[in-house]
Design a protein that fits this description.
The structure is a single chain. With about 300 residues, the protein is mainly α. The chain has one domain. The chain is built from 13 helices and no strands. The longest helix is centred in the first third of the chain and has 27 residues. About 5% of the residues have low confidence.
């Protein structure tokens, strides 16, 4: 269980870079996500080829890929459908940032824990736990203190709320579908499903949101490669592994640390001067407190 929490917080740290990379890459949200999924699919395909050539050790490091396992047709569609949820979550998340700002996007993302606390019991047919509701409201209050939520950005807020709901549904579904499958297999078919879905939607998207060019610049290509490998493939391989040991609620609640990591990373690498006032420290304390509470609760009930 403790190893699972180490992997969890490593994945959260990687997730903290996504907001910074999303800002650095100049593509709009639709093309950004399409290239992210496309490159991630190629990376997973490359790992398959490496395994066939005998590089089993490298593949084990990438999450124990076993693409030779037999997959039922229903399970295949489940994995691809789960990937579609993830891809749509990304589109709405970056859309929220584009329509408002990074602060609004991450504030809305903090609602994922609350959505999980409400939807996981319904999907898994168990009672709603009041403790989970309380645990999810504490970091939400903390992030509101940090970012001083501004209701003027209505479009960004709406897109962000949809994004957080999709993120909650993805995590719950990911946990259910991935119980009997390796991390690599899950991620490969999730990326493939997301790529197919977004490719079908892209003509309609570009019709309503036209762009000057579909080809990213060399600068964007470099950052997209880093984005897809480190902040997509590695991140979600870790997340799939973690979900085999902890609940979807615990994972999503812990991800409330992501906005804090994003702020610190942006300050460190982009030189963004953000005044760390009293409300920032109070908000940070609330977030850490809620994560520590849920981590303690999970470790207490672990075998």
């Amino acid at each position: 269980m403790r190893k699972a929490f180490v992997k969890l917080h490593l994945s959260i740290l990687l997730a903290g870079f996504t907001g910074v990379l999303g800002k650095i890459i100049t593509l709009n949200e639709g093309l950004l996500v399409w290239y992210r999924v496309f490159i991630a699919s190629l990376v997973m395909a490359a790992l398959i080829l490496l395994r066939k050539r005998g590089a089993a050790g490298l593949c084990r490091l990438a999450g124990g890929i076993s693409f030779g396992e037999r997959l039922r047709q229903r399970g295949l569609w489940q994995m691809m459908g789960t990937g579609t949820l993830l891809t749509l979550h990304w589109v709405f998340f970056f859309g929220s940032i584009k329509a408002s700002n990074v602060s609004i996007g991450v504030v809305c993302f903090s609602a994922t824990g609350l959505f999980t606390a409400l939807s996981e019991p319904l999907l898994n047919r168990r009672r709603i736990r009041l403790k989970e509701i309380v645990f999810s409201l504490i970091p939400l209050a903390g992030i509101l203190l940090i970012f001083h939520f501004d209701v003027r950005y209505r479009t960004g807020i709406l897109l962000g709320i949809i994004s957080s709901l999709l993120a909650a549904l993805f995590t719950i579904t990911n946990k259910r579908v991935g119980k009997e499958r390796s991390s690599g297999t899950m991620l490969f078919y999730e990326m493939l499903g997301g790529l197919l879905c977004l490719s079908l939607l892209m003509p309609f998207y570009l019709h309503y949101f036209p762009v000057a060019t579909l080809i990213p610049s060399l600068h964007d290509c470099i950052w997209l490669l880093i984005f897809a490998t480190c902040c997509t493939v590695l991140l979600y391989l870790l997340q799939i592994e973690v979900l085999k040991s902890i609940s979807a609620f615990t994972l999503n609640l812990s991800y409330n640390l992501e906005p804090v990591y994003s702020i610190l990373i942006a300050m460190l690498f982009l030189g963004e001067a953000k005044e760390l006032n009293f409300s920032f420290y109070i908000g940070l304390g609330l977030i850490c407190f809620s994560v520590l509470l849920q981590t303690r609760q999970a470790l207490k009930h672990s075998p």
